[in-house]
Amino acid sequence: MARTSAGEKPPGAAVSRGGGPDVLRVAAIAVAAAVAGLAAGLVLGGAAAEQVIPGLSDAGTVTRWGLPLSRTAMNLAAAVTVGALIAAAALLPLEGGGTGSGKSAGGRTAGPRLGADAIGYARAASWTAAAWAAAAAATLVFTIADVLGQPVSQVIVDSKLSSYAGQISQGTALMLVVLLAVVVALLARTTTTPAATFGLLVLSGIALLPPPLTGHSASAANHSVAVTGVALHVLAVAPWVGGLAAVGAHALARRDRLEVMSARFSRMALWCYVIVGASGLVNVIARLPDPAELLSTNYGRLALGKIVAFALLGWFGWWHRERTLPALAERRPGAFTRLATVEIAIMAATVGLAVALARTAPPAPATEESAVKSLIGYDMPPAITPGRLAALGQFDFFFAALVVALGGLYLAGLVRLRRRGDRWSPGRTAAWYLGLATILVVTQTGIATYSPILFSVHMVQHMVLNMLTPILLVLGAPVTLALRALKPAAVRGDRGPREWLTAALHSRAVAIIAHPAVATVIFVAGTFVLYFTPLFEAAMRNHLGHIAMSAHFLLAGSLFFWVLIGVDPAPRRLPYPGRILLLFVTMPFHAFFGIALMNLGQPLARGWYTAVDPPWGASLLSDQHTGGAIAWGFGEIPTFIVLIALAFQWYFDDQRQARRLDRQADRAERRRAGRPAGAGEPVAEDDELAAYNARLARLAERDERSRGS
Fold first, then answer.
1. Nearest to 79 by CA among 212, 214, 261, 253
2. Which residue intervals define the domain Copper resistance protein D in the entry (predicted)?
3. Which of 43, 197, 395, 574 is deepest in the core (most CB within 10 A)?
4. Which residue has the higher pLDDT, 362 or 222?
């Protein structure tokens, strides 16, 4: 890319008008590729020519083709919206905040703000989010017509849209998408700060999830794995596809800072590629346990086509890193533009193929599912024993991926510190990985197998995730490690991962949530609200609800113990006597909770536990009383661990304070060594011990004068 000349716009300027036709041309190519991939998938998968069974109503050809077309448009608009917001918040350098030039109306230094190009991408996200909402609304209409087996015109005329939209899961999901996309479209028109843009990006990520989670994943043979796999898949595909679209548009429009933007996207795309590959493999295994079905079934052949496209896109990514990024560094963007155009077209075709795959029914299970397997995803296990609790495990993809991610990031931080020659406490490392090990114990072993069918085992899982794992993770000091390991942003005033983390720690939201009173209420009240309302049974009946419940246990416990014994920076710190008092005030509530469970005359979530009641188990009420006893007795373990941790922290804090005062006194003594010391000698403000001694000397001198007079 040529350097800015006298006739060109400076860095950060708006879009060059000369690149508009090129952007539209590539967009048209991408849309055509998506439609071609969709049409090929529908024809090869058999969804384009569904056999109409006599006696059953048919929605017609318009719905048969309109539904996948509208869903493809919805997915493309969603990806482009996410990509535009990522480009605005992360791929382009920010302006202000740290430059020292910007001042707010109150005289304070202005924070980071989006540059001109970034604001342009935020405004573009407003338009694409509106298109996203419109496509989702069209998909909603076609979905209801498809479910009812009636033409679209009849659904609209008979006012069945409002009647059935909230009664089917797909309709509810699409209504959520419309609502969230409209919010993003409205707010993105006025967004000028990176924090607000990041908030819209999070909102867009949430809006991506409802439709795929109500499709085949919810009814797959191993739905617990499929649900997590499809969520990760969608959350990685959207920034990958949308980010490439944003970088390609940036290059075609001949904007500045293309080399910075493409380098950042390349790093993000590598992680997206890994996540897409891993989650896609898990999804294929969950739906096609027999590898031969990749060739013998329509669903398998379409999945195989996606695998080939995925491998081809991996080659494009390697080529970008090896060839086009160095070319961009030498200001030669032509090769990148040509290659990116082809890559965007392949990505769009793959999106169309994915929609066709979603319209194709996966192979039916070889054997009929039992009622229990349809609820929990696997057959009823044998009678519980200590050995089976340890060995008869179930793979939970969500927590397995969480542990791998947290363990890998922590290890990467340790490696960076070691290469730099810095030291890190082995005790903190041991605490962190021991905490991750406890997550694996209660989510991957027999405890996870028996927890959906026995309340007592579920309570063991709850107590560990809520009251033991968080203590170990908090003592591992992951935020402190991240702040030491992450490098500052290369561009002054910009925000990299370290700056985003620092901004989050100093945000008003964290200050409110991390207030000791708020953290305590979340920690205590969350348990009572969950178990003594219908929320508990609703969470047990849905795998996403079960994940949300377990994640709440983990996050609420981590927040509370961060306030008590956290090593990481926090908005406010209680004095050590206050921390001990808070611990002894809070822990009895868990004992009261256990006692309340043991005294209930009716079992909780009766409908769920009646449906999965094992023939070898105790009565529902007896098992619930056992769970209450576990909750009552388990509280002693974290209390003991926290007291020991507080004692050591208090002792070492006193030692650090004493050493600091000694160093100040030594510095003051060395400063006075070169001249006579007098009672009225000025003392350094930071020398507390010397100031105290000088004050005593002045008091003694005043007493002597008063006695002499």
1. 212
2. 262-357
3. 197
4. 362
